[in-house]
Structures are given as structure tokens and as C-alpha cells.
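User: ok so my PI wants both of these folded by tonight, can you help

Assistant: No problem, let's get them done. Here's the first:
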Amino acid sequence: MCPACGRFYQGLAEGDAGGLASWTRPARFVAHCLLLETDEGLVLVDTGLGTQDLANPRRLGGLFTGLLRPRLEPEETALAQVRALGFSPADVRHVVVTHLDLDHAGGLSDFPDAQVHVFHREHAAAMAPTWRERERYCQAQWAHGPRWVMHEVDGERWHGFERVRPVPGLGDEVLMVPLHGHTRGHCAIAVKADDGWLVHAGDAYFFHGEMAPERRCPPGLRMFQSIVEMQRGARLANQARLRALANGPEAAGGGIRVFCAHDPVEFERFAR
């Protein structure tokens, strides 16, 4: 996604020419998804935009396409990348979403056989959005009738977070961590890897500097997060808890790594 006026959204961004994002060049944001190989088959965490979004971009709405200017490249879809790894879409047995905003749920129809795990309150918001939520959810993205598996916010304590629950059938290696605020039922997905935990924080924050001990965030992203938030107090509190986790003793040894859905700096760290 490439909104205009890069510096407004990305500020003093690492990796940019001279360490300074430009007012004249667009920003760059990604849709960071995870593909997990498990004993129960493949698990996809978030889907990004899907092939049907590319086939009919108008369904994404003029506000999204006009402001964020997504590059609709077929090879970037989750479906294309799963196939490039030698798998079939049917091999994806579970999709676990951080939330159902249109840039996270667009690929659901590309994996129609998968169970789709989501918090009940997020599903309710997406199915019957208020006027404030209408632009963020795209009803066409689930017109195919996904195999919804809805979860209540209930579970155990995990690294300072309450009511954390495992995804059924996946042992204790894929966890849904309630992080409400950005949407009514937003969550992080914590994944147990060989070398520690990966915490996909979705849209709980948008800029890598928000996880620094001294929080920093460019003005465009501060404004955007405030405009789209559903529960300001919950969003800020959960962001602070994530920051404490990202800078805690477990993270210092690489045992816990936190990242969000759209920051390109974080994405490139993992890509390397």
C-alpha cells in the first residue's frame, strides 16, 4: 500500500535514502501474513488482499483504494505464495485472523475449505457494522460462506495478557491474544516457533517505533489510528502492554518477537 506523502506516514524511517522519508515519494506499507506448517496441515495467519479483490478492486471502496493506493499484484496474494511453495489451497486447514478489516480478510475466499477462527465480537461487528465501521469491512469478502469458528474471549494468562486461548486442534502453539481497541474484536496471534514466540500484533500498532522504550510514531499514523479506533482506552492500554512485552526479559534473548501487520521495516527484518 502506497499512500502519498511518505514522510507524513513514515517519518524518519530506517532504510530510506538518507534515513529520511520524502514528502514527494509515497510511503510503503505491507500486509504481513504468516504461513505455518503444523501436524494439522497449513495454518494461515491473516490473508491480506485476495484474488477476488484484484479481479474487482471497486469492491474495496474508493476511500481505501484512493487513500492507500494498493499495488494489486497477483504474485503478492497469499494464494499465489502458497502455490509457489508447492502447496494447494486445500492444504490450508485453518485461517486465524487478527481482525476482519478488508486488508486482512480479502483472501478468505481463496481458501474456502479452511476453518476461519475469529473472536465472536469481531464477527458480530463485521456482519452488522455501525456507520463508523462500514468502510472497514467488505461484505463481499465472505459472500462465499466461510467455515467460521467463533471464539469467546476466555482463557488463561500469558506473559501479562489475560484471557488468552489456544486455537482448537493446534495444541498450545497458536494462541489468540485479545487486543481490542482498533476493532471491537481485534486480537494478536502468538505462534510458538522453534526458537521462541512470534507475536503477530495485527493493527494494535502501525510503526516499529511504537514498540521502542521511548515510543515514537509519525503524525500521519498517529492520526490514522485515532480516527479508526473503536475503543481508545483499550487500544492504548494494549499497545503499552505489547511495548512492555517487546522490551521485557523474554524479548531480550530473542524468545519473544513482536511485529505488526503493516510496518515494512519489521517485515524486512524477518525477510532477511
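One down. Here's the second:
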Amino acid sequence: MAVKQLPWDSAVVIAVCDVLASTDYPGLTWSEIVQVLSLSGVREIEKASNKRNDLTRALINTQYRQRAGNCVIAFVNQAMKPARYISDPARFGALRDGVNEALAFQGLHVAEDGRLTRGAIAKTLNEAAEVAGRLQAEMKRRQVHPEVIKYCREELIQKSIFHAMFEACKGLAERIREMSGLTSDGADLINAAFSTKVDPPPLRINSYQSETDRSDHSGLANLIRGVFGTFRNNAAHVPKAVKPVSEADALDLFSTLSYIHRRLDEAP
């Protein structure tokens, strides 16, 4: 018989479930959750709300009934078996990073083989970010726009900051092309998409009626040109060994790109 483990803090259980049962990629589907719960010996499975709430209820209720955290440990071990993600290794990496941030408060860590191991106990969000991998955790905390992550998810998982920054910039250009219908790139794309020589411009972020609107419009275009000139063009021509980038620079860029994407969300 397995040794009873102390029950987990309910806040940690909820945080782990929020990652593993997240609505969007890389969260587990409901059928996957049911399968993993069954393999973990959890029988209290009920589809009553959304999958995150249902998973949380199943684990917390079982933990309370058994007066032990074994069911939660078993679920995480089953859910994080690498063999489940042979066809999508990036999904394993994304889930592992997210789960580890929550597990840091329990003094646990999912290793590369998918097994739970003991680690340092985090007491603050910053400590959790250090344990789990600061870059992705900090991006999540800053609420970086999904369009930023969409284009550099693989690079983030591989912890390639240099290439993640480059791909994120390329992703911004791609979104502008999709929104404007243009096919150019770089400064030519920005000049054409935000051109003030036509009224209204092919792409605008406001009603473009007042002088304030026009100034706001031109300001964003200048910001995008600056981002491309500072980050994308340099990355395209300078090897990362010659000009290494810091995590702080990457986070600042991702926040800037996130702001730009949110302004593009406002396009009429």
C-alpha cells in the first residue's frame, strides 16, 4: 500500500487544474482528463460545469475523502507522461512549464521524464517564476497578447530567446499583412498599411477623424517601425553569438509587441 502523502493546498490544486485543463492549447481535452483520472484511481468523475471546474472538484473531493494528496500526485504523474505527447512534444513542454509554476508552491517539480520530484518551495510569485522558468511565467504574468506567443511558442519551449524575439516580430508583420491585405514586408509594409496619403489608411486603429486620431495613428506606425528597426532587422543580420540578448530585453520586447497587438485589436 502506498504511503499516504499530505493533502495539497487547494490553491495549488486549482492552479494545476487551470493549466492541465485550460480551454485552449495545450490543455487536456475532457476525454483525456477522464482517462487520466481513471488511471489515477479517481472515481468521482462528473461532467457538470467546465472541464477545469470538474477536474478541480474531482481531485479536491477525492483528496478530502482520502485525507491524502496521493490522488493529485497520481493524476499529475499520469497526465505528464512524455509518451502521451510523442506527436506533439511542444505540448508537453508548454504543460510542464505551466504546471511547474504552480507546483513550486508545493515544493515539487515535473522533471523531463514527466515524474514529480522534490524541489525548492516557492513563497512568492517571483520565486515560482525562478523555479518554473522565468521567461514564460513572466510573460503569463504580464498578460502578453496571445498573438505574440502564437508565433514563437516553439522557440519559447526550446528556451531560445534570440529566435523567439525574431519570430515574434515576424508574427507582427504577418498579422499586419493579414489585416491590410498587403504582401510587402518591413518598413515598406508599415508605410503602405498605415499610409496617411489615403483617407482612410488601409489599416487604422481608430476612427481617424480628429487630429488626435491621426496623431495616435502615426505614433503607432512609428512605434512599429522602431521595433522592426531595433529588433527584427538586427536579428536578421547579426548572429546571436555576436550580439547576445538578455531575458530583460526579451520581456520588454514582448510587452511592446503585446501593446501593439492590443491596439490592432481596436482596428475598425
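The mean pLDDT is 87. The longest strand covers residues 108-110. Good luck tonight!
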